[in-house]
Amino acid sequence: MPPFKPVLLEAVGVPDGNTLASYKSRGGYAPLEKLLAEKQPGDVVEMVKSSGLRGRGGAGFSTGLKWTFLPKDHPGPIYLCINADESEPGTFNNRILMEDDPHQVIEGIIISAYATKASTAYIYLRYEYPRSWNRLQAAIDEAYAAGYLGKNIKGSGFALDIYLHRGAAAYICGEETGLIESLEGKRAWPRIKPPFPAIEGLFRKPTVVNNIETMACVAQIARRGVDWFKSIGVPADPNNPRDPGSYGPKLYCLSGHVEKPGCYEAPLGITVRELIDQFGGGVWKGRKAKAVIPGGISMGLMTESELDTPLDFAGPGKVGCLGLGTAAVVVIDETVSIVDFLHNSCRFFAHESCGQCTPCREGTSWSLRMLERIKAGKGRLKDLDLLLELGNTMGMMPGSTICGLADGAAWPIKNAIKKFRGEFEDSIKRTNPSGWMVTEPVPALQIVEAH
Amino acid sequence: MIAPVPILTAEMIAQIEALAPRYPNRRALTLPALHIVHDALRQVPQQAVVEIAAVLGLAPAEVQDTLTFYQFFHQEKPHGKVRAFVCRSISCALRGGDHLLEHLCHKAGVKPYGTTADGELTIEPAECLGACDFAPCILANDDLLKNLTPESAEAALKQVQAKAT
Q: Within its chain, how far is the Cα of A450 from the centroid?
């Protein structure tokens, strides 16, 4: 593979790289002006569709295809929502983009709004990113002053306003219809689909929800072309008609037990081991990895022997993980108890379940209570079967919930128990020598700090 | 009955109204309005909820419903001058996040989510702050405190407290 030069992260480390002047000096906004002068919105949709760009927020759905779901010749308004509620544990690539190169994101938003005929774009930004807020707002102000936002952008007749909207620390707002409900001023309860947002979304109007990194990719496709984008990554599997391929560069967030945590850009399809060794400086303190989260905690776990799995959209699924997710790789070294890992995961989802669907609300809560019990030396082997039963029955895939949060809660449970069952059993037998074999119902421990 | 003294100032209402043209209806102003009041008072008391509802033309219950969904907003009592979110999600937990939280709570003499008696500091566990490259980390007001040890966290928090008003 030829050496890969970062594109999305080109501004990282550049002095004042977040300013308009810097972005323009690197070739920014010229592609937008050319596109507004030469292309119709339909051409831009076609361009993004043919690039094979798949959404970077987690689900990996084709961005161009999503745009085509909007009704044709709709009188408007059509809304564009940018999902910057990056809350998946381990993930921080959107933060880097918003802080270090906000204009790249804004150019992508303008191009996407032009393609979808949206005249208002809301960036739903999580509360925890005050620096991103300031950098984005400053960049938006600069873009207005330079005529890239507002009415009649660069004489094209196209008008766009971008507004920042601040979240209030709730993971569920990253789910696209939860985000829409939250933007409307309500509790962020995901909606039953259909209707999908493209038909009836924000304020009951056609809406597209896209991720920040997806917007940066759109800007780069406009600048460098479809052929450039398709030259990077993993082509579609000819033996699998349902695989649309994994094209383009990707921002990988590497954290946990590595020597050099950080956000690194690589072609889609780099393996976990390459990422850890070439970018992360290896597992820290010369230790071995016990397990690795491939794409945010909701994607589940890989074992050490599965680390040669490629991180493209199809890769993690081949070893039983939920998917590529946000490509946030978290390394867990051999000293960590798998019980502690799963307790942390269950605590997160019990805290973040929005409470709308009973299987998720009760399932995440009871999985935490069982992990509390196991950690306190009161676990039973039976609990592992109960946990698996929860994992197998809550979520969109078994069809018991409205959104995918419960699938994300279930996958770490299923992967951890399936791949590390021996360690769970040893731990339970060791810590509860007199009660590990009990199978009658036992009470939960009182949780002191569930929330 | 004596009408209570209004909590929302003219300035707060002006701030809310300045955002109104951004949205096609007034209910969408709920979160921005709650943030404006919370930024100023470090809490949104129930009376402020009633007043926000009046400004937005909503039922108080609608605003209260939204407020309570987001655990972020303090209602009964204001949070401290410095609000420290200590990350406990996986990347930080692997590098000592839980220990950090325990240590800081012990030093401050509060339980998680508690505020010191002098009202200076609130310590809250947080789910992923999106700064896993700097784990373990704390968001204290607008400052991200990075790569912490229990000792360096204490020192960094003191610096944030020194400049907090």
A: 25
Is the minimum CB–CB distance between B133 and chain A shorter than 8 Å? yes
Q: Which CATH superfamily is domain A20-231 in?
A: NADH-ubiquinone oxidoreductase 51kDa subunit (3.40.50.11540)
Chosen from B22, B128, B147 to mutate, greatest number of chain A CBs within 10 A: B128
List for chain A the helix, strand, coil content (%; round to 5). 45, 15, 40
Q: Cβ of B25 and A203 within 8 Å?
A: yes
Q: Return the structure tokens found at A110.
A: 């303008």
3-state secondary structure A84-131: ECCCCCCCCHHHHHHHHCHHHHHHHHHHHHHHHCCCEEEEEECCCCHH
Biggest CA pair distance of chain B: 57
Q: List A271's β-bridge partners, or say none.
A: A310
Q: What is the pTM of this model?
A: 0.96
- The residue extents of the domains of chain A are 20-231, 246-333, 338-431
Query: What's chain A's average pLDDT?
Result: 96
* DSSP bridge partners of B143: B140
User: Which helix (H) or strand (E) element contains residue A303?
Assistant: strand A302-303
pLDDT digit string, tens, across residues B38-50: 999 999 999 999 9
Segments of chain A with pLDDT less than 50: 448, 450-451
- The CATH label, of 3.30.450.40, 3.40.30.10, 3.30.450.20, 3.40.50.720, for the domain at B82-163 is 3.40.30.10
> How many degrees, rounded to 5, is the angle at CA B97 between CA B95 and CA B103?
125
Note the CATH number of domain B10-69. 1.10.10
Contact criterion met (CB < 8 Å) for A163 and B144: no
Per-position pLDDT tens, chain B of length 165: 677 889 999 999 999 999 999 999 999 999 999 999 999 999 999 999 999 999 999 999 999 999 999 989 999 999 999 999 999 999 999 999 999 999 999 999 999 999 999 999 999 999 999 999 999 999 999 999 999 999 999 999 999 999 987
Q: What is the predicted ipTM?
A: 0.96
Helix axis angle for A421-431 and A405-419, nearest 10°, is: 80
Residue-wise DSSP of A8-21:
TTTTTTSTTTTSHH
A74: which 2 tokens?
Answer: 């709709």
Residues of B with Cβ-Cβ distance to A184 under 8 angstroms: 25, 27-28
pLDDT in tens, A366-418: 999 999 999 999 999 999 999 999 999 999 999 999 999 999 999 999 999 99
Query: Rounded distance, CA A348 to CA A181, Å?
Result: 22
Q: What is the pLDDT of residue A447?
A: 57
